Q: What sequence folds into this?
């Protein structure tokens, strides 16, 4: 059988690309400027971002209830942000320029674009491009780390999202062993790692565990609302030193839990950048699903949503 291929002139290709981009832009929700803070909303879901506080995602609400924690829980560690990995490269205090100082802001094709100041120590500049997708009720976040220094750098992107305690986190188990002083409180069933945050079982100091994941997603259930983060999966050997693809942290006061995931560890030449896309979904849990360790239908529900 002979297959006939058609080659389009350059002008036609350009027209198709521009048309596709225009259609995609048309499908996005328009970010609203509310006295310097921004809101993206559709279908009773609202994502709010504050450029003045490190371009941080300050809330993610469904029917008016915030799934993330606010400043009332912790003055510094709240909402969702981007950090550079590994942590040992910068110690216990993340760069103010990247974490909580003002970002410049613009809206392009219905995408909210936030750009940090240059970190004086590492030379990193962070860019966050955030958009809402009413068609599938999701939010897309594209993180870019640029090496604006004159030195070669190695880094992985690291999304740190703080949620309320007492919920259930789970993700497909990857390769290797789990580690960290919270590792024994997580358990593996049916190819899924489950972590039920039970305050009475966690010792009176902060704890964390590290694990490779699979399939590129992690989910959290609180009060019959499920939050899902979808991201590119990568092999365990490409994780940043002493870090992992999925990390779960709880603070000493047991007032919040961090659902964290990282991208692959990359080498950045001076002037080079890496980009990493994360998709967020927020849903009410269907009545037939139980937020319980080992409930396989819960994992299948997430797989259906992220496909």
A:
């Amino acid at each position: 059988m002979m297959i006939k291929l058609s080659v389009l002139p350059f002008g036609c290709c350009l027209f198709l690309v521009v048309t596709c981009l225009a259609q995609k832009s048309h499908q996005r929700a328009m970010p609203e400027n509310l006295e310097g803070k921004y809101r993206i909303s559709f279908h009773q879901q609202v994502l709010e971002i504050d450029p003045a506080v490190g371009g941080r995602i300050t809330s993610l609400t469904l029917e008016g209830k915030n799934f993330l924690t606010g400043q009332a829980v912790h003055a510094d560690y709240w909402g969702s942000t981007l950090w550079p990995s590994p942590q040992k490269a910068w110690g216990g205090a993340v760069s103010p320029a990247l974490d909580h100082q003002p970002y410049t802001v613009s809206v392009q094709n219905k995408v909210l674009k936030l750009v940090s100041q240059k970190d004086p120590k590492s030379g990193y500049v962070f860019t966050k491009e955030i958009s809402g997708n009413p068609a599938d009720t999701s939010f897309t976040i594209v993180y870019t780390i640029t090496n604006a220094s004159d030195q070669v750098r190695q880094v992985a992107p690291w999304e740190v999202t703080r949620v309320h305690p007492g919920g259930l986190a789970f993700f497909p188990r990857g390769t290797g062993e789990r580690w960290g002083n919270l590792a024994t409180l997580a358990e593996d069933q049916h190819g899924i790692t489950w972590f039920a945050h039970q305050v009475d079982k966690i010792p009176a100091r902060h704890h964390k565990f590290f694990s490779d994941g699979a399939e590129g997603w992690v989910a959290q259930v609180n009060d019959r609302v499920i939050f899902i983060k979808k991201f590119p999966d990568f092999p365990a050997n490409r994780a940043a030193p002493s870090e992992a693809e999925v990390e779960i942290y709880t603070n000493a006061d047991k007032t919040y839990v961090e659902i964290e995931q990282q991208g692959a560890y990359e080498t950045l030449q001076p002037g080079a950048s890496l980009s990493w896309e994360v998709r967020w979904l927020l849903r009410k849990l269907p009545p037939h699903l139980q937020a319980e360790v080992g409930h396989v239908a819960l994992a299948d529900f997430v797989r259906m949503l992220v496909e």
In short: The longest helix spans residues 10-27. The two ends are 34 Å apart (CA to CA). Residues 227 and 282 are 5 Å apart (CA to CA). Residues 1-8 have pLDDT under 50 and may be disordered.
